[in-house]
Amino acid sequence: MEAKTGKELLGAINDNENMERINRLKGTDSLAVWCGDNLYIISNSEMESDFHTPAEFLKYRLNLVGVPDFTHEMGTTEKNFFDELLDAIDNDWTDEYIQEILTDCYHMEDLSNE
User: Fold this and answer.
1) pLDDT in tens, the chain (114 residues)
2) Distance between CA atoms of 30 and 59, rounded to whole angstroms?
3) Cα angle vertex 36, ends 51, 6, to 5°?
4) Edge-first strand listing for the sheet containing 38-42
5) What whole-number distance in Å separates Cα of residue 9 and Cα of residue 15?
6) Taking the model in full, what pTM does it have?
7) 108 and 33 Cβ atoms separated by less than 8 Å
8) Is the dihedral of CA 12, 22, 56, 78 positive or negative?
């Protein structure tokens, strides 16, 4: 059997905990959002959620990494991001725009359909 490093063991434990958390939330109104290896849950549930709304999660990311890195995470420029956001506001499709960001950039999974 191959020996694992401490980092590999911690990664395996974290992966297992994330999968257990996702399995517990299947069939609920929760969204699973990935930032690298980090799992965040967006849900109305007080017990299991990290964030209650998609916008709350995006505000957290923006405050954590700043505007340049935030837009880099989304694969866009600051100017293009704000152009798209303002277009979304003008056309009343901000919810769809946020869902698109979460799906495309943060690999969102809708656990209600699981």
Assistant:
1) 455 565 554 555 567 888 888 888 888 889 999 988 889 999 987 777 899 999 999 999 999 999 999 999 999 999 999 999 999 999 999 899 999 999 999 999 999 875
2) 18
3) 110
4) 38-42, 31-35, 109-110
5) 10
6) 0.80
7) yes
8) positive
